[in-house]
């Protein structure tokens, strides 16, 4: 006669909560830093740059945590991609308002960024299967995509310096009279020149104090960062273009194969 099982001997499988995986918690932290940077973006360039950069640097940490704790999930991958796209877009929107003459360039960068990543993700799911990651690039794809997605160091370096390029432009919008002539504070406003917003007229307002600090930023450092990161920014846009073209070809190839199978099936029926 067997002894009855005790309660402690009954092993229940543990329930996992994917929302609370460590990489996803890091992803939520990234969002908090990103939103905080947007709050400070219009008037506080130093604080904004620090918060925004922290959010970008955490992008590498969540991937390392996912591999270390074996908690790689599709939700985490999508969360990471959405956070990247949204934060970059918000910064580019600010740059479009800071440099209205170049706004069409920033609008084009936003469109390219979203379209290339969306069609690449969709093509991977539609053609590669639901279990395939968008970072799994086979040998038939161009070398630039294999290099970009297969090497985590290249991926992190390119993405980080791409963001650094736009951060440098953001800092220059507060520090370079060459790009923003209105930063010449000693110039008196004329009838043809718009005055500062009403909130800055008060000497005790946070906006007035921050603008006073911002105009003391030495533009040489942002210019140097811009020069260093420009090559990586251009490379990132090239990857986006290649990604867009290759994903489009992949989808069209799938469409043609599906149409061919339909025609073969119709011939068999007839």
Automatic annotation (TrEMBL):
Listed Pfam families: CDP-OH_P_transf
One Gene Ontology cellular component annotation held by this UniProt entry: membrane
Transmembrane segments: 20-41, 153-172, 221-239
Membrane topology label: Multi-pass membrane protein
Keywords: Lipid biosynthesis, Lipid metabolism, Magnesium, Membrane, Metal-binding, Phospholipid biosynthesis, Phospholipid metabolism, Transferase, Transmembrane, Transmembrane helix
EC numbers for this chain: 2.7.8.11
Enzyme class, broadest EC rank: transferase
Cofactor needs: Mg(2+); Mn(2+)
Protein location: Membrane
Similarity section: Belongs to the CDP-alcohol phosphatidyltransferase class-I family.
Record-linked PANTHER family: CDP-DIACYLGLYCEROL--INOSITOL 3-PHOSPHATIDYLTRANSFERASE (PTHR15362:SF4), PHOSPHATIDYLINOSITOL SYNTHASE (PTHR15362)
Protein name per the record: CDP-diacylglycerol--inositol 3-phosphatidyltransferase
Organism, scientific name: Aspergillus bertholletiae
């Amino acid at each position: 006669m067997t002894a009855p099982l005790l309660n402690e001997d009954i092993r229940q499988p543990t329930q996992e909560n994917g929302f609370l995986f460590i990489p996803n918690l890091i992803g939520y932290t990234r969002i908090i830093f990103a939103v905080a940077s947007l709050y400070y973006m219009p008037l506080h360039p130093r604080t904004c740059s620090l918060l925004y950069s922290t959010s970008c640097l955490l992008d590498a940490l969540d991937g390392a945590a996912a591999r270390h704790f074996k908690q790689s999930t599709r939700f985490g991958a999508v969360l990471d991609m959405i956070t990247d796209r949204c934060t970059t877009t918000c910064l580019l929107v600010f740059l479009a308002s800071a440099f209205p003459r170049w706004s069409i360039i920033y609008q084009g960068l936003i469109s390219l960024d979203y379209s290339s990543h969306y069609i690449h993700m969709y093509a991977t799911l539609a053609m590669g299967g639901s279990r395939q990651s968008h970072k799994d690039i086979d040998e038939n794809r161009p070398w630039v995509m294999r290099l970009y997605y297969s090497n985590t160091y290249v991926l992190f370096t390119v993405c980080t310096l791409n963001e650094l390029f736009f951060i440098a432009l953001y800092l220059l919008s507060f520090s370079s009279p060459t790009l923003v002539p209105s930063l010449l504070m000693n110039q008196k406003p004329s009838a043809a020149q718009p005055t500062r917003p009403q909130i800055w007229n008060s000497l005790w307002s946070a906006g007035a104090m921050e603008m006073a600090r911002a105009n003391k930023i030495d533009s040489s450092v942002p210019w140097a960062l811009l020069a260093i990161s420009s090559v990586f920014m251009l490379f990132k846009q090239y990857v986006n273009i290649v990604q867009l073209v290759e994903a489009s070809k992949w989808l069209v190839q799938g469409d043609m194969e599906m149409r061919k199978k339909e025609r073969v099936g119709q011939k068999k029926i007839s």
